[in-house]
Amino acid sequence: MTPSTAFAGKTVAVFGLGASGNATVRSLLAGGAAAAAWDDSPASRAASEQAGLALTDLSTADWSRFAALVLAPGVPLTHPEPHWTVVKAKAAGIEIIGDVELFARERERLCPDAPFIAITGTNGKSTTTALIAHILRVTGRDVALGGNIGRAILTLEPPSPDRVHVIELSSFQIDLMPTLRPSVGVLLNVTPDHIDRHGTIESYAAVKERLVAGAKVAVVGVEDDYCRAIAHRLEAAGKIVRRVRSEKPGVHEYGFAGGKVCYDSRFDGLVEVVSLDGIASLRGRHNAQNAVAAFAATWDLVRPADFAAAYASFPGLAHRMEEVGRLGSMLFINDSKATNADSTEKALASFERDIYWILGGKPKEGGIAALRPFFPRVAKAYLIGSASKEFAETFGSAVAHELSETMDNAVAAATRDAATSSGAEPVVLLSPACASYDQYKNFEERGDHFRRLVSAIPGIALRRAAA
Q: How many CA atoms lie within 13 A of 141 on its CB side?
């Protein structure tokens, strides 16, 4: 745990009693503060009380006695409208922050130069975060991994000169972090997402920009207009910027060419670092950018000769282009994390043909119309969940499809049809392009269901579990 001493001797309101909220309360108490914790959910309140935390009804509390509000990242700060605790905090004139801000203030107090790599982006941030942590661990570093992936940040060990914190940050977390100053900040991409929480794509991009603007070294993907503009602004301001892309790099950039992560050196030209050939956990162009970004973020800390073994041993992440197993030449891929069309585009682009595509759920704005260029790669589609009829209309006669309704039906039908394919490597691909909330609690539950169904197929050769 990292005790938070920033509010020692004071009382802090904490709203949202999920994993990060409970960790926040314990961190504040360990650092000498008092915590007034609450949640709108009776079930969450009951679970926290059962875990030994004392609660305070913030709806009737005297807010003049609070020094700050620590807000859970899932709670609206501005859009579609501020949560009632935000209104009360602003009326009381107190700051509104998140748990990552408490960590940042403790780092500033204990060890301002402690290695802190922060990663964000609309897509790819979890894989990149996990890959950075993996590279550092297998090359002998003490790594603390958390934030928007894995453990709540305040449950990690405190910052120190010999410990590297590798932290994934969502836009919601960045919005609650006014003193965001990582040693390395990574911004992979910006595409439309979470507009309901930020109002406009421009506001969303501005929040993402804060992560790299405050970093000593900024690693920026330059394959979308927003990030190219961000990189240009940072360079104009005199920041150290490492531009990354999933194709051959330009001058002084980091990129991917000939199947290898590489960079363009001022003196030596194109320098090849590591090949991704045969690394199933880093399949696809999108993972090429993730791999390049991980290299750009860590090359100051890792010997060049150690990168090959680190990349080759990366197991990947569950639900993100996860290779579940093989049945003869058939490949089964769990990409349940693909909750929008942009994410699913990365999956479809990873296979040239013979895709037996399972998709559907709670649709996002725009549906799958943007994926039309990839329809010729799809042998057949299997539609599940509430988006089924809408997606069937989008497919029309362009893609053979059936209304499977449930994952059980879809996996059975896709396996049956893929078995008749004459292709060299037919792939049964779960990449829903939708949220999971119509049939599942979250994308993890959806992906786990897919994995269980595939695991039960007679003769399946399962791949080792992803991280």
A: 27
Sign of the torsion formed by the C-alpha atoms of 179, 183, 189 and 194:
negative
Round to whole Å and give the CA distance between 262 and 247: 10
Backbone angles phi, psi at 33, to 5 degrees: -100, 165
Query: In this structure, are 90 and 116 located in the same domain?
Result: no
Structure tokens at 186: 């990574």
Distances (CA, A) of 173 to 266, 335, 387: 37, 24, 30
Q: What is the pTM of this model?
A: 0.88
Domain span holding position 263: 101-312
| 139 and 154 fall within a common domain | yes
Eight-class DSSP state of 112: T
Residues with Cβ within 8 Å of residue 456, at least 6 apart in sequence: none
Q: What is the DSSP letter of 228?
A: H
Residue 56: C-alpha distances to residues 17, 63, 82, 334 (Å): 12, 11, 21, 42
- DSSP letter for 199, please: S
Residue 317 domain-assigned (yes or no): no
d(CA 120, CA 122): 7
Tokens found for residue 17 = 């009693």
How much helix, strand and coil, in percent to the nearest 5, is found in the chain?
35, 25, 40
Dihedral sign computed on CA atoms, order 409, 415, 419, 422: positive
380-415 per-position pLDDT tens digit? 999 999 999 999 999 999 999 999 999 999 999 999
Residues 116 and 53 in one domain: no
How is residue 64 written in tokens? Answer: 């003049």
- Per-residue pLDDT tens digits for 158-211: 999 999 999 999 999 999 999 999 999 999 999 877 888 889 999 999 999 999
Looking at the chain, how many residues does it have?
467
Q: How far apart are CA 1 and CA 119, in angstroms?
A: 21
The answer to whether 453 touches 446, Cβ cutoff 8 Å, is no
